[in-house]
Amino acid sequence: MPSSSESSESADTNSTAVCRVVIIGAQRARVAKVASILNSDQALANFQHQPPDYEDQTPAINITIEYLPCVATFGSYKNASGDVVRYLEKIEYHGAEGGCPRGSSLAPFFDTVDDAEVNQKLRLDGISVVAIGCGIDSTQDVAMIETFVNGVCSASVEDGHSSIDAPILQCVQPNGEYSSMKEENEAYRGMSADEKSEAVQSGTIGPGKMARFAYALAEGVIENAIESAFPKQEKVYIEQDAKAEKEDDGSEVGEDASALTVVQEPVVRMRDPSKVQFACRICRAILFDEDDLENPPHSRSSHSFSRKHDKPDGRGGAGQCESQFLSGGMDWMGDIGGMEGKLHCPKCHSKLGLWKWAGAQCSCGTWVTPAIQIPNSKVDELLAPPVAVSAGGLIPGLSSLAVQPKP
Fold first, then answer.
1. What is the structure's pLDDT at 195?
2. At what angle do helices 193-202 and 206-229 cross, to 10 degrees?
3. What is the rounded CA–CA span in Å between residue 376 and residue 346?
4. DSSP letters spanning 197-228
Protein backbone atom coordinates (compact mmCIF):
# COMPACT_ATOMS: atom_id res chain seq x y z
CA MET A 1 0.00 0.00 0.00
CA PRO A 2 1.55 3.35 -1.02
CA SER A 3 1.84 6.15 1.49
CA SER A 4 -0.62 9.08 1.48
CA SER A 5 1.96 11.27 -0.21
CA GLU A 6 2.51 8.65 -2.90
CA SER A 7 -1.24 8.33 -3.44
CA SER A 8 -1.59 12.08 -3.79
CA GLU A 9 1.26 12.19 -6.29
CA SER A 10 -0.29 9.34 -8.27
CA ALA A 11 -3.67 11.09 -8.42
CA ASP A 12 -2.03 14.27 -9.70
CA THR A 13 -0.32 12.44 -12.56
CA ASN A 14 -3.64 12.14 -14.34
CA SER A 15 -5.05 14.47 -16.85
CA THR A 16 -6.02 14.00 -20.44
CA ALA A 17 -4.45 12.48 -23.52
CA VAL A 18 -5.46 11.96 -27.13
CA CYS A 19 -5.81 8.68 -28.98
CA ARG A 20 -5.81 9.18 -32.75
CA VAL A 21 -7.76 6.72 -34.88
CA VAL A 22 -7.45 6.75 -38.67
CA ILE A 23 -10.50 5.50 -40.56
CA ILE A 24 -9.59 4.53 -44.12
CA GLY A 25 -12.14 3.82 -46.83
CA ALA A 26 -12.52 3.93 -50.59
CA GLN A 27 -15.13 6.71 -50.72
CA ARG A 28 -15.23 10.02 -48.87
CA ALA A 29 -18.99 9.93 -48.34
CA ARG A 30 -18.76 6.60 -46.54
CA VAL A 31 -15.94 7.54 -44.18
CA ALA A 32 -17.71 10.88 -43.54
CA LYS A 33 -20.82 8.98 -42.42
CA VAL A 34 -18.77 6.87 -40.02
CA ALA A 35 -17.01 9.98 -38.64
CA SER A 36 -20.37 11.66 -38.13
CA ILE A 37 -21.64 8.73 -36.06
CA LEU A 38 -18.50 8.69 -33.91
CA ASN A 39 -18.26 12.43 -33.33
CA SER A 40 -21.95 12.81 -32.49
CA ASP A 41 -21.82 10.24 -29.69
CA GLN A 42 -19.83 11.39 -26.67
CA ALA A 43 -19.56 7.80 -25.47
CA LEU A 44 -17.59 6.98 -28.63
CA ALA A 45 -15.54 10.19 -28.70
CA ASN A 46 -14.17 9.89 -25.17
CA PHE A 47 -12.76 7.17 -22.96
CA GLN A 48 -13.03 7.63 -19.22
CA HIS A 49 -11.27 5.35 -16.79
CA GLN A 50 -12.44 5.65 -13.20
CA PRO A 51 -10.62 3.03 -11.11
CA PRO A 52 -12.35 1.29 -8.19
CA ASP A 53 -11.68 2.67 -4.71
CA TYR A 54 -9.19 -0.08 -3.93
CA GLU A 55 -6.98 0.76 -6.94
CA ASP A 56 -5.34 3.80 -5.38
CA GLN A 57 -2.27 3.46 -7.64
CA THR A 58 -4.30 4.29 -10.79
CA PRO A 59 -5.65 7.83 -11.29
CA ALA A 60 -8.85 8.78 -13.01
CA ILE A 61 -8.03 9.16 -16.70
CA ASN A 62 -9.91 10.89 -19.49
CA ILE A 63 -8.77 10.26 -23.06
CA THR A 64 -10.17 12.04 -26.08
CA ILE A 65 -10.46 9.86 -29.16
CA GLU A 66 -9.68 11.85 -32.31
CA TYR A 67 -11.00 10.23 -35.48
CA LEU A 68 -9.27 11.00 -38.78
CA PRO A 69 -11.43 10.06 -41.81
CA CYS A 70 -9.23 9.31 -44.81
CA VAL A 71 -9.61 8.04 -48.36
CA ALA A 72 -7.19 5.62 -49.98
CA THR A 73 -6.80 5.97 -53.75
CA PHE A 74 -5.48 3.07 -55.79
CA GLY A 75 -4.16 3.02 -59.35
CA SER A 76 -2.95 0.39 -61.80
CA TYR A 77 -0.63 -0.07 -64.76
CA LYS A 78 0.60 -2.81 -67.04
CA ASN A 79 4.11 -4.07 -66.49
CA ALA A 80 6.52 -5.33 -69.16
CA SER A 81 4.82 -8.73 -69.11
CA GLY A 82 1.43 -7.20 -69.74
CA ASP A 83 0.16 -7.99 -66.26
CA VAL A 84 -1.97 -5.39 -64.49
CA VAL A 85 -0.26 -4.15 -61.33
CA ARG A 86 -2.35 -2.43 -58.67
CA TYR A 87 -0.71 0.12 -56.39
CA LEU A 88 -1.59 2.60 -53.67
CA GLU A 89 -1.45 6.17 -54.99
CA LYS A 90 -2.18 8.10 -51.80
CA ILE A 91 -4.01 8.27 -48.50
CA GLU A 92 -5.48 11.68 -47.73
CA TYR A 93 -7.15 13.17 -44.68
CA HIS A 94 -10.45 14.97 -45.35
CA GLY A 95 -11.08 16.90 -42.13
CA ALA A 96 -12.55 15.88 -38.79
CA GLU A 97 -15.97 15.21 -40.33
CA GLY A 98 -14.66 13.91 -43.65
CA GLY A 99 -16.32 16.77 -45.50
CA CYS A 100 -13.31 18.52 -47.05
CA PRO A 101 -13.33 17.87 -50.82
CA ARG A 102 -9.58 18.34 -51.09
CA GLY A 103 -7.57 16.01 -48.93
CA SER A 104 -4.32 16.71 -47.11
CA SER A 105 -1.35 14.61 -46.02
CA LEU A 106 -1.76 12.26 -43.11
CA ALA A 107 1.95 12.37 -42.25
CA PRO A 108 1.82 15.26 -39.70
CA PHE A 109 -0.47 13.23 -37.46
CA PHE A 110 2.24 10.61 -36.99
CA ASP A 111 4.49 13.15 -35.29
CA THR A 112 4.91 12.78 -31.55
CA VAL A 113 3.94 15.55 -29.16
CA ASP A 114 6.33 17.44 -26.92
CA ASP A 115 7.17 15.70 -23.67
CA ALA A 116 5.83 18.67 -21.71
CA GLU A 117 2.37 18.26 -23.24
CA VAL A 118 1.66 14.71 -22.16
CA ASN A 119 2.20 13.09 -18.80
CA GLN A 120 4.96 10.52 -19.08
CA LYS A 121 2.81 8.01 -17.18
CA LEU A 122 0.43 7.78 -20.15
CA ARG A 123 1.24 9.03 -23.63
CA LEU A 124 -0.45 8.07 -26.89
CA ASP A 125 1.80 9.66 -29.47
CA GLY A 126 1.15 9.90 -33.18
CA ILE A 127 -1.53 7.56 -34.50
CA SER A 128 -2.60 4.61 -32.35
CA VAL A 129 -5.14 2.83 -34.55
CA VAL A 130 -5.85 2.36 -38.26
CA ALA A 131 -9.34 0.97 -38.97
CA ILE A 132 -9.90 -0.10 -42.58
CA GLY A 133 -13.26 -0.63 -44.28
CA CYS A 134 -15.85 1.46 -46.15
CA GLY A 135 -15.24 -0.31 -49.45
CA ILE A 136 -11.73 -1.67 -48.79
CA ASP A 137 -11.50 -5.31 -47.82
CA SER A 138 -9.05 -7.13 -50.08
CA THR A 139 -5.94 -8.59 -48.51
CA GLN A 140 -3.78 -6.94 -51.18
CA ASP A 141 -5.15 -3.44 -50.51
CA VAL A 142 -4.86 -3.84 -46.75
CA ALA A 143 -1.23 -4.98 -47.12
CA MET A 144 -0.41 -1.90 -49.22
CA ILE A 145 -1.99 0.38 -46.61
CA GLU A 146 -0.01 -1.33 -43.85
CA THR A 147 3.22 -0.82 -45.79
CA PHE A 148 2.38 2.86 -46.22
CA VAL A 149 1.60 3.34 -42.52
CA ASN A 150 4.79 1.60 -41.41
CA GLY A 151 6.77 3.71 -43.86
CA VAL A 152 5.35 6.96 -42.50
CA CYS A 153 6.13 5.83 -38.93
CA SER A 154 9.74 5.16 -39.88
CA ALA A 155 10.03 8.51 -41.68
CA SER A 156 8.71 10.33 -38.62
CA VAL A 157 11.45 8.79 -36.46
CA GLU A 158 14.14 9.60 -39.04
CA ASP A 159 13.02 13.26 -39.06
CA GLY A 160 14.11 13.57 -35.44
CA HIS A 161 10.90 12.71 -33.61
CA SER A 162 10.82 10.28 -30.72
CA SER A 163 10.49 6.61 -31.47
CA ILE A 164 6.83 5.61 -31.79
CA ASP A 165 5.18 2.24 -32.04
CA ALA A 166 3.43 1.26 -35.24
CA PRO A 167 -0.34 1.61 -34.80
CA ILE A 168 -2.75 -1.28 -34.51
CA LEU A 169 -4.07 -1.89 -38.03
CA GLN A 170 -7.20 -3.97 -38.66
CA CYS A 171 -9.76 -4.38 -41.44
CA VAL A 172 -13.42 -4.83 -40.57
CA GLN A 173 -14.74 -8.35 -41.19
CA PRO A 174 -18.18 -9.58 -42.34
CA ASN A 175 -20.75 -10.93 -39.92
CA GLY A 176 -21.10 -14.69 -39.75
CA GLU A 177 -24.07 -14.87 -42.10
CA TYR A 178 -22.22 -13.15 -44.95
CA SER A 179 -19.38 -14.54 -47.01
CA SER A 180 -17.78 -11.15 -47.69
CA MET A 181 -18.05 -7.47 -46.83
CA LYS A 182 -19.39 -6.87 -50.34
CA GLU A 183 -22.32 -9.18 -49.66
CA GLU A 184 -22.89 -7.57 -46.26
CA ASN A 185 -22.85 -4.05 -47.72
CA GLU A 186 -25.34 -5.09 -50.41
CA ALA A 187 -27.65 -6.37 -47.67
CA TYR A 188 -27.35 -3.03 -45.87
CA ARG A 189 -28.14 -1.08 -49.03
CA GLY A 190 -31.30 -3.17 -49.46
CA MET A 191 -32.65 -2.20 -46.04
CA SER A 192 -35.44 0.25 -45.49
CA ALA A 193 -34.73 3.67 -43.96
CA ASP A 194 -36.01 2.50 -40.56
CA GLU A 195 -33.90 -0.64 -40.66
CA LYS A 196 -30.81 1.36 -41.55
CA SER A 197 -31.47 3.74 -38.67
CA GLU A 198 -31.80 0.82 -36.27
CA ALA A 199 -28.62 -0.76 -37.65
CA VAL A 200 -26.69 2.46 -37.04
CA GLN A 201 -27.90 2.53 -33.44
CA SER A 202 -27.09 -1.13 -32.79
CA GLY A 203 -23.80 -1.07 -34.72
CA THR A 204 -24.46 -4.48 -36.27
CA ILE A 205 -24.06 -3.61 -39.95
CA GLY A 206 -23.22 -0.71 -42.25
CA PRO A 207 -21.59 2.54 -41.06
CA GLY A 208 -22.72 1.91 -37.50
CA LYS A 209 -20.76 -1.32 -37.43
CA MET A 210 -17.67 0.41 -38.83
CA ALA A 211 -17.98 3.11 -36.16
CA ARG A 212 -18.19 0.52 -33.36
CA PHE A 213 -15.27 -1.35 -34.89
CA ALA A 214 -13.06 1.76 -34.88
CA TYR A 215 -14.01 2.55 -31.28
CA ALA A 216 -13.40 -1.04 -30.13
CA LEU A 217 -9.86 -0.92 -31.55
CA ALA A 218 -9.23 2.40 -29.79
CA GLU A 219 -10.65 1.04 -26.56
CA GLY A 220 -8.29 -1.93 -26.62
CA VAL A 221 -5.24 0.26 -27.27
CA ILE A 222 -6.20 2.70 -24.50
CA GLU A 223 -6.83 0.00 -21.93
CA ASN A 224 -3.49 -1.55 -22.81
CA ALA A 225 -1.77 1.84 -22.40
CA ILE A 226 -3.38 2.32 -19.00
CA GLU A 227 -2.33 -1.14 -17.88
CA SER A 228 1.23 -0.49 -19.05
CA ALA A 229 1.43 2.88 -17.31
CA PHE A 230 -0.28 1.73 -14.11
CA PRO A 231 0.19 -2.08 -13.88
CA LYS A 232 -2.30 -3.82 -11.66
CA GLN A 233 -0.81 -5.86 -8.89
CA GLU A 234 -2.18 -8.66 -6.79
CA LYS A 235 -1.33 -8.90 -3.11
CA VAL A 236 -0.62 -12.46 -2.08
CA TYR A 237 -0.69 -12.82 1.67
CA ILE A 238 1.95 -15.10 3.19
CA GLU A 239 1.25 -14.68 6.88
CA GLN A 240 1.45 -18.43 7.46
CA ASP A 241 4.77 -18.69 5.59
CA ALA A 242 6.15 -15.71 7.51
CA LYS A 243 5.09 -17.28 10.79
CA ALA A 244 6.71 -20.59 9.85
CA GLU A 245 9.94 -18.79 8.87
CA LYS A 246 9.95 -16.99 12.20
CA GLU A 247 9.56 -20.28 14.05
CA ASP A 248 12.37 -21.88 12.03
CA ASP A 249 15.10 -19.29 12.60
CA GLY A 250 13.76 -17.47 15.64
CA SER A 251 13.94 -14.11 13.92
CA GLU A 252 11.33 -11.40 14.06
CA VAL A 253 9.23 -10.79 10.98
CA GLY A 254 8.72 -7.14 10.05
CA GLU A 255 5.36 -5.64 9.18
CA ASP A 256 6.27 -5.45 5.48
CA ALA A 257 6.76 -9.21 5.35
CA SER A 258 3.05 -9.83 5.90
CA ALA A 259 2.35 -9.44 2.21
CA LEU A 260 4.17 -10.04 -1.05
CA THR A 261 3.31 -8.14 -4.23
CA VAL A 262 3.48 -10.22 -7.38
CA VAL A 263 2.81 -8.93 -10.89
CA GLN A 264 0.33 -11.12 -12.69
CA GLU A 265 1.36 -12.58 -16.04
CA PRO A 266 -1.18 -12.99 -18.86
CA VAL A 267 -2.66 -16.48 -19.11
CA VAL A 268 -2.72 -17.42 -22.79
CA ARG A 269 -2.90 -20.69 -24.69
CA MET A 270 -0.56 -22.11 -27.28
CA ARG A 271 -1.72 -22.84 -30.82
CA ASP A 272 -3.05 -26.40 -31.23
CA PRO A 273 -3.30 -27.11 -34.98
CA SER A 274 -5.52 -30.12 -34.37
CA LYS A 275 -8.34 -27.98 -32.99
CA VAL A 276 -10.47 -25.03 -33.97
CA GLN A 277 -9.43 -22.21 -31.64
CA PHE A 278 -10.49 -18.65 -31.03
CA ALA A 279 -8.09 -15.71 -30.63
CA CYS A 280 -8.49 -12.08 -29.63
CA ARG A 281 -9.02 -10.09 -32.81
CA ILE A 282 -6.78 -7.25 -31.63
CA CYS A 283 -3.70 -8.98 -30.19
CA ARG A 284 -4.20 -12.58 -31.45
CA ALA A 285 -3.89 -14.17 -28.01
CA ILE A 286 -5.53 -17.60 -28.14
CA LEU A 287 -8.38 -17.64 -25.62
CA PHE A 288 -10.35 -20.88 -26.00
CA ASP A 289 -10.98 -23.74 -28.39
CA GLU A 290 -13.91 -25.77 -29.66
CA ASP A 291 -13.80 -28.07 -26.63
CA ASP A 292 -14.62 -25.11 -24.37
CA LEU A 293 -17.85 -24.20 -26.16
CA GLU A 294 -21.27 -25.04 -24.70
CA ASN A 295 -22.11 -28.68 -25.20
CA PRO A 296 -24.64 -29.32 -26.54
CA PRO A 297 -24.99 -25.96 -28.30
CA HIS A 298 -28.23 -24.06 -27.79
CA SER A 299 -30.99 -24.41 -30.36
CA ARG A 300 -31.63 -21.43 -32.55
CA SER A 301 -34.92 -19.75 -31.67
CA SER A 302 -37.75 -19.59 -34.16
CA HIS A 303 -38.53 -16.10 -32.89
CA SER A 304 -36.31 -13.03 -32.99
CA PHE A 305 -36.62 -10.14 -30.56
CA SER A 306 -34.81 -7.72 -32.84
CA ARG A 307 -35.67 -6.58 -36.33
CA LYS A 308 -33.44 -8.34 -38.82
CA HIS A 309 -33.26 -7.76 -42.53
CA ASP A 310 -34.55 -10.74 -44.49
CA LYS A 311 -32.19 -11.54 -47.30
CA PRO A 312 -33.58 -12.59 -50.69
CA ASP A 313 -32.44 -16.18 -50.22
CA GLY A 314 -34.36 -16.43 -46.96
CA ARG A 315 -31.40 -16.29 -44.61
CA GLY A 316 -31.35 -14.01 -41.59
CA GLY A 317 -35.09 -13.93 -40.91
CA ALA A 318 -34.94 -15.52 -37.48
CA GLY A 319 -31.60 -14.01 -36.56
CA GLN A 320 -28.14 -15.54 -36.71
CA CYS A 321 -26.03 -16.65 -33.76
CA GLU A 322 -23.40 -13.90 -33.54
CA SER A 323 -21.68 -15.00 -30.32
CA GLN A 324 -19.79 -17.93 -28.86
CA PHE A 325 -21.07 -19.32 -25.55
CA LEU A 326 -18.60 -21.17 -23.32
CA SER A 327 -19.42 -24.12 -21.11
CA GLY A 328 -17.57 -22.76 -18.09
CA GLY A 329 -15.06 -20.29 -16.72
CA MET A 330 -11.40 -20.24 -17.72
CA ASP A 331 -8.21 -19.23 -15.91
CA TRP A 332 -7.70 -16.00 -17.87
CA MET A 333 -11.14 -14.71 -16.85
CA GLY A 334 -10.05 -14.13 -13.27
CA ASP A 335 -12.71 -13.98 -10.56
CA ILE A 336 -16.15 -14.59 -12.07
CA GLY A 337 -17.84 -15.38 -8.81
CA GLY A 338 -20.23 -12.43 -9.02
CA MET A 339 -23.63 -12.65 -10.66
CA GLU A 340 -22.40 -10.90 -13.80
CA GLY A 341 -19.47 -8.96 -15.21
CA LYS A 342 -17.33 -8.16 -18.24
CA LEU A 343 -14.57 -10.25 -19.75
CA HIS A 344 -11.28 -8.75 -20.94
CA CYS A 345 -8.43 -10.16 -23.01
CA PRO A 346 -5.63 -11.28 -20.65
CA LYS A 347 -3.00 -9.86 -23.01
CA CYS A 348 -4.23 -6.56 -24.51
CA HIS A 349 -7.11 -6.02 -22.00
CA SER A 350 -9.65 -5.12 -24.66
CA LYS A 351 -13.26 -5.98 -23.86
CA LEU A 352 -14.27 -9.43 -25.08
CA GLY A 353 -17.68 -10.21 -23.69
CA LEU A 354 -19.55 -10.91 -20.48
CA TRP A 355 -20.78 -13.49 -18.07
CA LYS A 356 -24.25 -13.62 -16.52
CA TRP A 357 -25.17 -16.54 -14.36
CA ALA A 358 -28.83 -15.58 -14.72
CA GLY A 359 -28.50 -15.97 -18.47
CA ALA A 360 -28.32 -13.80 -21.58
CA GLN A 361 -30.09 -13.74 -24.91
CA CYS A 362 -28.28 -14.78 -28.07
CA SER A 363 -28.85 -12.73 -31.22
CA CYS A 364 -30.83 -15.69 -32.59
CA GLY A 365 -33.42 -15.13 -29.86
CA THR A 366 -32.56 -18.08 -27.58
CA TRP A 367 -32.02 -17.41 -23.88
CA VAL A 368 -28.83 -19.16 -22.73
CA THR A 369 -28.42 -19.95 -19.03
CA PRO A 370 -25.86 -19.60 -17.58
CA ALA A 371 -24.15 -17.37 -20.12
CA ILE A 372 -20.45 -16.83 -20.76
CA GLN A 373 -20.81 -14.91 -24.00
CA ILE A 374 -18.15 -13.64 -26.42
CA PRO A 375 -19.33 -11.92 -29.64
CA ASN A 376 -17.84 -13.20 -32.90
CA SER A 377 -16.75 -9.64 -33.68
CA LYS A 378 -14.24 -9.80 -30.79
CA VAL A 379 -12.42 -12.97 -31.85
CA ASP A 380 -10.93 -14.64 -34.91
CA GLU A 381 -11.61 -18.31 -35.56
CA LEU A 382 -8.43 -20.30 -36.17
CA LEU A 383 -9.42 -23.29 -38.25
CA ALA A 384 -7.73 -26.68 -38.09
CA PRO A 385 -5.43 -27.25 -41.10
CA PRO A 386 -7.19 -28.85 -44.06
CA VAL A 387 -5.99 -32.31 -45.04
CA ALA A 388 -5.53 -32.96 -48.74
CA VAL A 389 -6.82 -36.26 -50.08
CA SER A 390 -5.64 -38.00 -53.25
CA ALA A 391 -6.86 -41.12 -54.97
CA GLY A 392 -4.39 -43.12 -52.91
CA GLY A 393 -5.42 -41.57 -49.62
CA LEU A 394 -3.94 -38.76 -47.52
CA ILE A 395 -1.09 -36.70 -48.91
CA PRO A 396 1.42 -36.52 -46.03
CA GLY A 397 2.78 -33.15 -44.98
CA LEU A 398 0.25 -31.08 -46.96
CA SER A 399 -1.54 -28.70 -44.63
CA SER A 400 -1.80 -25.01 -43.88
CA LEU A 401 -2.93 -22.84 -41.02
CA ALA A 402 -6.24 -21.24 -41.88
CA VAL A 403 -7.51 -18.14 -40.12
CA GLN A 404 -11.16 -17.15 -40.47
CA PRO A 405 -11.77 -14.31 -40.90
CA LYS A 406 -8.39 -13.00 -42.00
CA PRO A 407 -7.81 -9.30 -41.20
1. 92
2. 10
3. 17
4. HHHHHHTSSHHHHHHHHHHHHHHHHHHHHHHH
